[in-house]
Amino acid sequence: MRGAGANPVAMVMTNAERQRRYRQKLKSRASGDALGDRVADAAERAVAALWSYHERPAPGGMRWSDIDGCTTMAHYRAELQRSPGNLVQACRAFLPDFEDLTDDEARAIGTIIAISDALRLASSGAPGHLQDMPAIAA
Questions:
Q1: How far is it, in rounded angstroms, from Cα 118 to Cα 21?
Q2: What is the SS3 assignment for the chain?
Q3: What Å distances lie between residue 91 and 29, 44, 121, CA to CA?
Q4: I want to staple 106 with a disulfide (CB 3.0 to 4.6 A). Which of 66, 101, 112, 113 is the partner?
């Protein structure tokens, strides 16, 4: 057993049950029902990536916390939450080449930029430029 007092019957999941849950998850993703949860997860990954970068020394060797005063992840998160655009602005600061980020950090931050562009109906190829919309025939 995995722990004292654990119910072994409740912990065992059949292969059929795992497959059923997996199919439900796929259906939920395909229908868009879980989109909010997926975006929230993406935001959490981006915050973790930004904090990870923040914990490394700045180019001059100085600690970022000495520069911005954020000494804990909770404080850093509070700064990002202070204004609705702070997370996206912090992510966009790494454009165009995501310099000094690991591949996972760049992917997490790039996802937030892509979500932001999609919500603004902006072209993903040129941040800040609106897509040309086709003319609608009358």
A1: 29
A2: CCCCCCCHHHHCCCHHHHHHHHHHHHHHHHHCCCHHHHHHHHHHHHHHHHHHHHHCECCCCCEHHHHHCCCCHHHHHHHHHCCCCHHHHHHHCCCCCCCCCCHHHHHHHHHHHHHHHHHCCECCCCCCCECCCCCCCC
A3: 25, 12, 18
A4: 101
Instruction: Tell me the two tokens of residue 102.
Output: 């690991």
> Quick check: 50 and 80 in contact, CB under 8 A?
yes
Flag whether the pTM goes above 0.85: no
Cα separation, 53 vs 94, whole angstroms: 11
Q: What is the pLDDT along the chain (138 residues), one digit of tens a residue?
A: 445 555 555 568 889 888 998 888 888 777 777 788 889 999 999 999 999 999 888 778 888 888 888 899 999 999 999 998 999 999 999 999 998 899 999 999 999 999 999 998 876 554 444 444 344 444
